Amino acid sequence: MPLYIEYPAWLSPVIIPGLPLRWYGMMYLVAFAIAYLLTKVQLKERSNPLHGKMTNDDVVNLFFWMIIGLLIGSRIFATTIYDTSGRYLGKPWLIFWPFDSEMNFTGLQGMSFHGGLVGAVIAGVIYARVRKFNIPELADVIVTSVPLGYTFGRIGNFINGELYGRITDSSWGVLFPNAERVPTSHPAVREIADSVGIDITGQAMVNLPRHPSQLYEAFLEGVLLWAIMWFVFRTRKPFRGFMVGVFLVGYSIARFIAEYFRQPDPGLDFVIQWGPANNPRWLLMSPWNITTGQVLSLIMAVAGIIVLVAIRLYIGKRPQVETFEAPTPPPPPKRNARKKRSRKR
After folding, report:
1. DSSP readout, 129-164?
2. How many whole angstroms separate alpha carbon 52 and alpha carbon 46?
3. Which residue, among 68, 235, 61, has the nearest Cα to 140 in the 3D structure?
4. What angle do CA 207, 213, 216 make, to 5 degrees?
5. What's the whole-number mean pLDDT along residues 266-286?
């Protein structure tokens, strides 16, 4: 009996064969819808500073421009920072071209969270300034709504069988059919294959179970982070902009942890290698070998701390309105209550 989980054969990236409808794109729509609904819930709360200030059209327009910024930013980051082939740098028009060389619809495969965050922030700030909404207050609402929707994006990655994790002998490891094959000459490969019951006799390359890192991220960066922000901090935030810092730091910690189980993209093995130099990217050998995603997460965490400190200092340095007790006004003079009698003539 195999000691791993077979990837479900009934799962397919395409929703309806022959039509350009894919589960990954559908999950993005679900993510946007959830974030929109959670934003509306917060704006209906009387304790929210933006209650009654934003119309339905404002919310729809805000999400429209933020989604445009997210798609542009995430795609640019994915095709420039995470893609090392140079294909998109040489042919930049392919960045937003959703067809392959045979004109088959493939969608925009490959999106970067960090790039999407940058693009969405830029679009949201511009919209808030044009409409004269308080940026920290609006940002608090948006970032509190985002994580739960993000969960479904990672589920879409799992359905696509992409962004899988490193090989593992754990009983919950998943054998992804399209995962990268690893060489049987590596001692760890032979050990893990024997442990999970996979015969590698006569094979030079073999497919082994992987950490379902997409589901790890869906829980850590999605469900868990959203629950902490929604139920713990949302009604207890000490100042405007606080939720932004919590989101940046919280997501960074969750992503940094998940990166230990997720296989780095080709060509981006380890940008910091303080552990073993012979560490293949498909194997976790040392916590001191740091990936590109972890470096970006550290930068994001520092940015979150800076946001918290900067906003807190700004609030502390704002000029305070001097309060004083107004003097009690003197009582009004008493009027003569006697009525003058009219003289008879």
Report:
1. HHHT--HHHHHHHHHHHHHHHHHHHHHHHHHHT-S-
2. 8
3. 235
4. 150
5. 89
Residue 128 is encoded by which pair of tokens? 């808030």
The string of pLDDT tens digits covering residues 296-330 is 899 999 999 999 999 888 765 655 444 444 455 66
Both structure tokens of 34:
């959830």
Three-state secondary structure readout of 326-339: CCCCCCCCCCCCCC
Compute the distance between CA of residue 102 and CA of residue 99 in angstroms, rounded to an integer.
Answer: 8
Q: For residue 321, what pLDDT is reported?
A: 42
- Contact between 229 and 250 (Cβ < 8 Å): yes
Please check the confidence at residue 334 and state whether its pLDDT lies above 90: no
pTM of the model: 0.81
Q: Write down the domain spans for the chain.
A: 5-54+133-317
| CB-count burial class (<10 Å; 0-12, 13-18, 19+) for 163 | middle
Distance CA 134, CA 128 (A): 7
In the block, residue with structure tokens 């959203």: 226
Checking if the pLDDT of 97 tops 70, the result is no
